[in-house]
Amino acid sequence: MLCYHAVSPTWQHRLCIQPDLLLRQVRTLSRFRKVVASFDDAFCSSASVFPELERLGVPIEIFVCTGYARDGASLAIPELAGDNPAELATMSWDELAGHVDRGVLIGSHSVSHPHLVELNDDELRRELNESKAEIEDRLGRLCSDLAYPYGEHDERVRLAAREAMYERAYALRRPQGGQYAVPRLDLYRRHTVSRTLLRAVASRA
């Protein structure tokens, strides 16, 4: 599973990738194995590549922070302070429902995108349980998947994900905890096609 965030030909942020580069990465990796494209944070810009991914037969999954899934919301976390709010615009529930109707999967990325390992037990349960429940209520679909914000997890967080009744939870590159730390390959604008291949090989070593 590949991990992306925002998609734009002009925004020069480390979390943002140009659409043509993303599609070249996907096409190249698809020659060697089946890939799934996942998009953390539910940035509106990510939808720009969905039609081409669908034409390529690549499954898509969006991991949404439910606290921002409303009209006109921008992801407001300390790490993005000072960035253009327009670039940080996130999908509303109506937009997410439209993607579901096209076959896109929706998973949880928590309520507010915190550092889960830093939360107390009650806060951790709220972030995982409430986000799952709201996705299921709003979209009428089972929410089986969780992607940890920042890819951060430990034994306590993995146990909380299991207790919240997620079937699996995604981390980043290297597997560390079975089905509650499933690896994803995170790719960015600095990863040319050749670097993407090297990164994919290294992630499986």
Layout of strands and helices, then pairs:
Layout: E1 2-4, E2 6-7, E3 16-17, H1 19-30, E4 37-40, H2 50-55, E5 60-64, H3 93-101, E6 105-108, H4 121-139, E7 145-147, H5 155-163, E8 168-170, E9 185-186, H6 193-203
Parallel strand pairs: 1-4, 1-9, 2-3, 4-5, 5-6, 7-8
> Might you state the CATH topology name?
TIM Barrel
Percent of residues in β-strands: 5-15%
State Rg. 16 Å
Mean pLDDT: 94
Strands ordered across the widest β-sheet = 6-5-4-1-9
Kindly describe this structure.
The protein has helices at residues 19-30, 50-55, 93-101, 121-139, 155-163, 193-203; strands at residues 2-4, 6-7, 16-17, 37-40, 60-64, 105-108, 145-147, 168-170, 185-186. It has 205 residues and is α/β, with parallel strands linked by helices. The protein starts with a strand and ends with a helix.
Summarize the structure.
This protein has six helices and nine strands; from the N terminus they run E-E-E-H-E-H-E-H-E-H-E-H-E-E-H. Helix 1 packs across helix 6.
